[in-house]
Amino acid sequence: MSAPDGSGPFEIFDARALAAARRRALRLGPETFLLDRVAEDLADRLTAVKREFARAADLGTPADALRRALAGSPMVGRLDVFGPAERADVDVVTDPEALPIAPASLDLVVSALAFQTVNDLPGLLAQLRRTLRPDGLLLAALFGSGTLGELREAFAIAESDTLGGISPRVAPFADLRDLGGLLQRAGLALPVTDVDRVTVRYGDIFALFADLRRMGATNPLAARRREPLRRGTLARLVEVYGERFADPDGRLRATFEVVFISGWAPHESQQTPLRPGSARKRLADALGTKELPLPLSDRAERDE
What we know:
Layout: H1 15-28, H2 33-47, E1 53-59, H3 65-70, E2 76-83, E3 92-93, E4 106-112, H4 121-131, E5 132-143, H5 149-163, H6 176-185, E6 189-202, H7 205-214, H8 231-245, E7 252-264, H9 283-287, H10 296-303
Parallel strand pairs: 1-2, 1-4, 2-3, 4-5
Antiparallel strand pairs: 5-7, 6-7
Helix pairs in contact: 5-8
């Protein structure tokens, strides 16, 4: 996404805050239950493709879950890991906004839970399209717009009640339908998007906060409020969350919406839709029925 004055990408996410969150997660001990689930799902989806990928790249996945899930796969040849400096086992330290990958050099790009904090997601997808060889595949998962909706709503109410206004607390994750359009805009063929909604239950909101810190998923927004959360606001947040999003046993729900996206670099072997009017058989013949002309009244209505 570009800035309004056209000077460059608009900064939604603070790169330094993201790096600090990743370092803190490593110090605390990463919480990877979601990442492990997503990595296994991506590996399963890849087995359904029934083809080999000689050269692949894992882009930005925050830990080694995807590399482990694909280890030993007969479908994936060489897998290089591109990621932030905080991850010690990356093959290439890189910023996902500017990829050091040669055009048409990869057969497969995979990524798990990384793209949701990219400032210029359309630009990234366009870059990935260029890095893929013809008939190369992009397969990724990222958090979607329904992620942490409960926390977003509770924060908005708590801040409005105690501060008289709200500030951005939860990232504006991409919508499922928008992502399909972005894949097409990037020039990727046969785009597919689908969603997996995971509901996690917590004893209290502080356990949710602890998991988010260990996931490196604390507030990275450039426009975030830069002062500590006030006690009155926190108390109201706890109250609202418990009132609106607690199950009968008192445990709190938190939703994580994982959107899976895939698209192919165009190739002549891929299926393409037929041109309008190019059909060689009538629908009536295929159904074994007789085609009847429209009554004059119906024709007139259609002409209008």
